[in-house]
Fold this protein.
Amino acid sequence: MARIAIIGLGLIGGSIGLALKRAGLPDLEIVGHDAEYGVNGKARKLGAIDHEAKHPAQAVEGCALVIVATPILHIRHAFEAIAPALGEGAAVTDTASTKKDVMRWAKELLPGDISFVGGHPIAGKETAGITAADADLFRDRPWAIVPSLTATEHAITTVETFVALTGAIPTTIDAEEHDSYLAAVSHLPLLVSTALFSLTSGSQAWPELAAVAGPGFRDTTRLASSSPTMSHDISLTNRENLVHWLDRYLEELRGLRDIIATSETQEELSERFATVQAARDAFMIAPPAKPEPDQNIDDMSAGQRMMSLMVGEYVVRRAKDVQDTLEKRASGELDEYEKQR
Amino acid sequence: MARIAIIGLGLIGGSIGLALKRAGLPDLEIVGHDAEYGVNGKARKLGAIDHEAKHPAQAVEGCALVIVATPILHIRHAFEAIAPALGEGAAVTDTASTKKDVMRWAKELLPGDISFVGGHPIAGKETAGITAADADLFRDRPWAIVPSLTATEHAITTVETFVALTGAIPTTIDAEEHDSYLAAVSHLPLLVSTALFSLTSGSQAWPELAAVAGPGFRDTTRLASSSPTMSHDISLTNRENLVHWLDRYLEELRGLRDIIATSETQEELSERFATVQAARDAFMIAPPAKPEPDQNIDDMSAGQRMMSLMVGEYVVRRAKDVQDTLEKRASGELDEYEKQR
């Protein structure tokens, strides 16, 4: 029996649980804990976890892999809470949208024999909470992997394999690079979208504006519905990069504003719109190649590998047996009696 | 036989044709013209028009209703081209995203006995052209109606009924109000989205950024894929309102930037995100009531009303007969012989 703990059972933690359960690993127990009243029970009823833990420390006992999926600014506290209870050599990962601070907290607060491998699933939706959890949330999405300097190869592979089991594509990246890139294509859009909805909905004419707001307005302001905790925590833990990109964006938009306000021939404006449209169409038609998984996938399936990493060969062989049985069931080779067994 | 002309067979003109054809009015002919080579034929093959016209003037001959669905800055030229050929008392409408300039051109260029009733379907998608046309594009969307001062009641009702036939909800508005509201919730988002994609795709790190860009980035930059001609024409014909809202937006975003850059307690930031999220969730959960159609719908269907307005009672009675036959067919009351008749 192998155990995984998920600390924090919101949209991300809950979706991880559902995705792992659907992967159908035999002999895998998922223990979950959420600080909010009633969430543990909901997560168990939805099938995202097997067992509820009353305290983070209780959840991680005997776990080979611990996933911290709390809001960013709670991660520090979660590390403090689980540190004394972590088993020797356990792998710990997280799911925060910013990585630099998390890596520092892990270094400060987790025991020396613990391998921390930061993680960030680049997926989500604007609805939050366990009730929005979705086993498909991570499918084919990149999942950034940020190993700490002291993480063992074994722990890195465990986390990468866990990520592959959720359907995501693990891709290794440096914490500084991660935060700088995400500031541009995730955190800046969040602020751009929030400011747009803030401005329009704060206008005296809002009832009239809302009546003529179309799908373009809805899409452009979708990120304004993001969790305020997440937005706040991102702004704090990625402040420097975000301010850098905000300044560049303000400059870009002011430039566009000036062309519109002053240009007479409008050729520059035509060219600008045409260039941007062509670039975005190219991006949508042929997005950059999906990141290559960091690991060569060998003959073992991700599920087998995961179990092998966590509990060794015995369970791997059993997993293979169970998988064979499932395949036979699906192809109708087993009779009714065996199907019910 | 009643005739409608559509000048300009792009996404909007083509979708109007498809929506009208699906409404299944008997004895209605749609004549279409597009300046771009090959588009007329495509529109006819797709079933958006019945007849191709080589010139706008040829298209509008004998038409009770003329719909000008060209790019905004071509409308002026279209008005000049059709003016000599318009039948007495014809109703002319358009579909431009801005209305003030169009109303002025109509007054200047269309004959005095022509009723101009401006229109703007608040619908669309980022793909342009006849091949993207969609009979459902306008369903349940508001469609702004901007009657000129000299438009007859009959012409206004004809245009409103035509709009209702496409599935949209006609809603009367003043040209100045229209352009000011749309600047905030349509044209500003277009610029905000364009600047975001322009900035990020122009960055040296773009390949790295694109690799970690998620669905939030795609949604926030969707409008950057809008037709450059449309974006350009909107910027020119709604310049004053757009610059006003761009300035307010720049101020709003700069304020958010300053809170992030300097605030220590971050309470203000938390509050801001929470307020905006609550407001947007409210907007999405209970959007403002759909605009009421300007006309009380009487016992006649929109199709009957349209035909009545355009060619009088005789065709209305025939339309009713045909509709009865169609309903009987659908309910299986007619035998095979009659079905084939």
